[in-house]
Amino acid sequence: MAVPRNALKKWAKVREFALGLPGAAEEFPWGESVAKVNKKVFVFLGVDDGSYPLALTVKLTDETAHTHALTSPGAEPAGYGLGKAGWVRIPLAEQGAPAAELLCDWVEESYRAIAPKRLTAELDAGGRG
User: Fold this and answer.
1) pLDDT digits (tens, 9 = 90+) for 73-127
2) Which helix (H) or strand (E) holds 87?
3) Contact of 60 with 88, CB cutoff 8 Å
4) CA nearest neighbour of 114 among 92, 89, 86, 95
5) Of 39, 46, 6, which Cα lies nearest the Cα of 114?
6) Which contiguous run of DSSP H or E holds residue 55?
7) 16-37 tens-digit pLDDT
8) What is the DSSP letter of 48?
9) Does domain 5-118 have CATH number 3.90.1150.30?
10) What counts of helices (H) and strands (E) characterise the chain?
11) Which residues pair with 24 in a beta bridge?
12) Buried b (16+ CB within 10 A) or exposed e, 97-112
């Protein structure tokens, strides 16, 4: 299954943004890419090899952002019970999928929900990775 180029470019931009956040690291549990801070996942990036539809999953605790994310084409509360905790899965290849800039905003919000205060303070002070 071919991955649409625009979705792949968006995915790469969001991945680069996520890994540029203070203390962020990429790991590959379950064979998929995740970005973690302080050993906790803040964004599930999935796989980019075309074996599964390109999507990302973020934790959105802000009700407005959470509601907005769920209006994205194909978006849904994350599986495995994560949806109850505010996690949303957002497909990237759907027609009308959010722009990379908006996705990065959501990744940052997810990061802020999970990162320790000292790292969010570093982010606020302008420190990027």
Assistant:
1) 999 999 999 999 999 999 999 999 999 999 999 999 999 999 999 999 999 998 5
2) strand 87-91
3) yes
4) 86
5) 39
6) strand 55-59
7) 999 999 999 999 998 999 999 9
8) S
9) yes
10) 4, 6
11) 37
12) bbebebbbbbbbbbbb
* DSSP-derived 3-state class of residue 124: helix
Between CA 87 and CA 123 the distance in angstroms is 22
**Radius of gyration over every alpha carbon of the chain, rounded to an integer in angstroms:** 14
Whole-angstrom Cα distance, residue 101 to residue 121? Answer: 21
Domain locations in the chain as residue ranges: 5-118
Q: Where are the alpha helices (DSSP H) in the chain?
A: 5-19, 63-70, 100-114, 117-124
pTM for the complete prediction? 0.94
Phi first, then psi: what are they for 36, rounded to 5°? -120, 150
Which neighbouring-strand residues pair with 59? 87
- Encoded amino acid at 41, one letter: V
